[in-house]
């Protein structure tokens, strides 16, 4: 399954905040959307799933597996969210329900897309917790979000996003709120899951060093417009736009390589 975004325009109360953005994500590809705060990268991701805030509208074309998503009724989009396209947000503390156990939230994600009994869904929730490498899965699923660390909450958010086995994962700055050590662990886990299951990935960030660890191709946004795109390696070594050059100077992530990559630190 592939994603095609063409001439995407997003307006909020008459103000154009995304202007003519185009990119494609072939099956199994890993694309990065990168830019400073306010560049339109997160709004672009929300438009893909029909989750734009009230007062915002999208035009142009967003095609998923040759199916146009712009203008599709929310009920139909709901069948695609999670089941075919999953999303992980930047701050799991706000994305997770504070008054429900994390196991119940993972199980609910499973039951939305699979008509299975609650007991079976709970057993699956334990499996999903183990899949994202949470410690002591049978115990941790009975805890509430505030009882977990930031890294553990992000693992729960990832488990929810992947519970229904989507083919495309959108990760919206999933490591920004984490310290460098935990950030590296989450990035390694994310890339491991994406690679082992052959998922397509849209990874959103403002940090070019982070992007270099998970994506092979990138689109650079500034004020809602594409200013540069190409292989991440080229953006790291020969950026052509001033905004990309600035992002390269500001890159702060500790460089990391997957285990067994054979590359030096």
From TrEMBL:
InterPro entries: AAA+_ATPase (IPR003593), ABC_Ni/Peptide_Import (IPR050388), ABC_transporter-like_ATP-bd (IPR003439), ABC_transporter-like_CS (IPR017871), P-loop_NTPase (IPR027417). Belongs to the ABC transporter superfamily. Keywords: ATP-binding, Cell membrane, Membrane, Nucleotide-binding, Transport. CDD domains: ABC_NikE_OppD_transporters. GO terms for cellular component: plasma membrane. It is found in: Cell membrane. Residues 3-248 form the ABC transporter domain. GO terms for molecular function: ATP binding; ATP hydrolysis activity. It comes from the Bacteria. This is ABC transporter domain-containing protein. Its main location: membrane. It is a peripheral membrane protein.
């Amino acid at each position: 399954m592939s994603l095609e975004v063409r001439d995407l325009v997003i307006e909020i109360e008459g103000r154009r905040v995304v202007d003519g953005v185009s990119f494609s994500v072939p099956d199994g590809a890993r694309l990065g959307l990168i830019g400073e705060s306010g560049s339109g990268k997160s709004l672009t991701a929300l438009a893909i799933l029909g989750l734009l805030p009230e007062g915002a509208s999208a035009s142009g074309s967003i095609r998923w597996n040759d199916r146009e998503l712009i203008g599709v009724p929310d009920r139909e989009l709901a069948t695609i969210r999670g089941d075919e396209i999953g999303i992980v947000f930047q701050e799991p503390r706000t994305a997770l329900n504070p008054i429900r156990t994390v196991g119940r939230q993972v199980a609910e994600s499973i039951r939305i897309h699979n008509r299975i009994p609650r007991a079976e869904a709970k057993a699956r929730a334990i499996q999903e917790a183990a899949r994202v490498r949470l410690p002591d899965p049978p115990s941790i699923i009975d805890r509430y979000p505030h009882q977990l660390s930031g890294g553990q909450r992000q693992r729960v958010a990832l488990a929810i996003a992947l519970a229904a086995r989507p083919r495309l994962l959108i990760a919206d700055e999933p490591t920004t709120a984490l310290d460098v050590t935990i950030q590296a662990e989450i990035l390694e886990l994310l890339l491991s899951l994406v690679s082992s299951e052959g998922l397509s990935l849209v990874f959103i960030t403002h940090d070019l060093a982070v992007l270099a660890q998970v994506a092979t191709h990138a689109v650079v946004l500034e004020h809602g417009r594409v200013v540069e795109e190409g292989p991440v390696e080229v953006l790291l070594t020969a950026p052509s736009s001033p905004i990309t050059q600035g992002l390269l100077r500001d890159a702060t992530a500790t460089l990391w390589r997957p285990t067994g990559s054979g590359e030096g630190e």
